[in-house]
Amino acid sequence: MTVFGIPTEFILFAVTLLGVALFHHHTLPVALSGLTAIILYKLAFTGFHAGAGLAGLAGHMAGEWVILTNLLGLLLGFALLARHFEDSGVPQILPRYLPDGWLGGLALLVVIFVLSSFLDNIAAALIGGTIALTVFQRKVHIGYLAAIVAASNAGGSGSVVGDTTTTMMWISGIAPIEVFHAYVAAGVALVVCGIPAAIQQHRFSPIVCDAPAGATIDWPRLGIVAWILIAAVVTNIVMNLGFKELASAFPVLGIAVWVAILLATRIRQPEWSLLPEALKGSLFLLTLVICASMMPVERLPEASWHSALTLGFVSAVFDNIPLTALAIKQGGFDWGMLAYAVGFGGSMIWFGSSAGVALSNMYPEAKSVGAWLRHGWHVPLAYVIGFAALMLTLGWQPHQAKPITAAIETAPHFNPQ
């Protein structure tokens, strides 16, 4: 069943994403309603990749549960990791080393970029927003807020631990090196949007580089951050090199992160009170990923640099998590180019990425599409220039692996008919 040639599943999914954008205070109920509608439609009319009816639904989820469980473990674990980093004292010390003038604003964006390469981009944006409140005397320009989101998304685009989208690629079997070249585009984009944003902020409210009195670094807590990241990276490398079958059958990566967190409680206790809210946000993202996994991707446009560029603009309106899930399921993309496109592209509007939504909760005045586009004009410009820089230097480097599709096709009860 199609409407103007568009499969009904895509229309239901688009309505769900539109509801998320319009009712951003009720994202989980909207996402769950959309998932329910898609499941009921597929039960009644089309069936699933693994077959028809409830058996097909069960087979589909049997092919997805490892990826979903890994993603849940990493999202919750990285929420605690980000608070460990925030409580380490490093964000309080950083202002002491920022230069004066507009260069200070640019340097802060670079710091956010670097933080996002090993912290979740949401955490990097919130840490940057917190520092900005201090160094700009609680007066932060909307154009600079857009640049903070852009810097956090850019920094996470080339790292499999820096963004939910790249983490999804990683746990789906895509090697970290295959997304690393996103930094070619991300670095160019950071400069293109960072300089005008820093000048905007300097004219609006100049930087004051004073660290709070008595601020110190909690080195054991900072060591815990490194320990958790090392545990995640080493586990993933070992699984991919020698135990691929186990990695595809059991959520080893998510469990390894939580083992590292629990072992570190002897040194410093994490902020357990963060988990209820983090769980709510994680369930929302997982719901969108499940919706995306049920789309008939064989009807999507063929993977190309044109479609990657387009997905970047689409991610400014629709959350980049489900877009990435669709692309991974389809396969054949240049993963570094895609990571940059859906990551940085989501910065063009405040609700286009989770980092933008999180920062806008801290700065409610940013929840205006008109103001964001008017003052953050440098972000879409930077997106296009960064994308062009990557195309002109490294070109389109597609990879044919289809990790999620392969997982579905090898799941129990899979029936290609």
From TrEMBL:
Transmembrane spans: 12-32, 38-58, 65-82, 102-135, 142-160, 180-199, 219-243, 249-267, 279-297, 303-326, 338-357, 377-396
A biological-process GO annotation: sodium ion transport
Molecular function GO terms recorded: antiporter activity
UniProt keywords, alphabetically: Membrane, Transmembrane, Transmembrane helix
PANTHER family in the record: SODIUM/PROTON ANTIPORTER 1-RELATED, SODIUM_PROTON ANTIPORTER 1-RELATED
Protein's name according to its UniProt entry: Citrate transporter
Organism: Chromatium okenii
